[in-house]
Amino acid sequence: ETYRHPGVGGGELTHRLQQDAQETIDRVHRPAVAGVGIPVEAGASGDLRAGSIVGEHEDERVGEKAVKYLSNKGEAYSVRALAAYAIGKSKYSKAVEVISKYIDEPSYADIIRIYCLRGLGEYGGDEAYNIIKRYWSKEYTQIVRMVALEQLGNFPEKKKEVFDVLSKYAYERNRFIRRGVINAVNKLMFPEGIKVLDIIIDREKMGFVWKPARLVKRKITEAMEKGIEYKKLREELERIREETRRIGERIEAIERKGL
Predict the structure, then answer these.
(1) In 187-197, which positions are buried (b, 16+ CB within 10 angstroms) versus exposed (e)?
(2) Are 80 and 87 in contact (CB under 8 A)?
(3) Sign of the torsion formed by the C-alpha atoms of 23, 26, 30 and 32
(4) pTM across the whole model
(5) How far apart (Å, rounded) are the C-alpha atoms in residues 208 and 201?
(6) What are the phi and psi torsion angles at 216 (to 5°)?
(7) Which of 100, 138, 179, 218 has its CA 20 to 30 A from that of 33?
(8) Alpha-carbon Rg of the chain, whole angstroms?
(9) CA separation for the pair 95, 85 (Å, rounded)
(10) How many other CB atoms are there within 10 angstroms of residue 101's CB atom?
(11) Mind listing the pLDDT tens digit for each residue in 113-172?
């Protein structure tokens, strides 16, 4: 994914990440990188993408190896960022402790902070949630705030609080913040999300925001309709079973009288 950062064009950021990744892969032993789960294309000299991430499995060993990359300040920002995500994604037992140590470390376009937030979102739990919510504050860049809000989609167990927050930020003038709200609703797929999306749709004129909002609303609506259809079908089957049972009882009663 490409994020625009104040003073940094999206294309420039992507190019810089690719450069950082290329330099790192070239000087890091390939098996060691593969051991942490960082994808390296066969036949390629080392193409590390921000969208293809480490930590596909819940494995304490993956987390331990990823910590080494995150803590190594000699590594490229992109690799350290992906390692932060891996730590959370792999459900490493010390994920919150480790990520919270590096989340405020300065990096190009806040890339380490962004992936620390994503790692915490993947890890879940109260501690991670309480750290994430600090980054909705206006003191952080619009991209950091957007990513922090996106992580609410990983906390369905906090449904009421999450939707209170999303409803509040749906009114924000900053379009990146509203995109964060949309992305969180998309993850949750709860019917309550429609009200949040309507706040954005009714106020938004830019397709960058209202198009995804309408798309997510349609997804939720279709899911609800399928759920209603399934419920009706299940009720109809139950009604048929009950009628069949009653008919069977009547037939048995008639047969007993005949006997």
Answers:
(1) bbebeebeebb
(2) no
(3) negative
(4) 0.69
(5) 11
(6) -65, -40
(7) 100
(8) 25
(9) 10
(10) 14
(11) 999 999 999 999 999 999 999 999 999 999 999 999 999 999 999 999 999 999 999 999
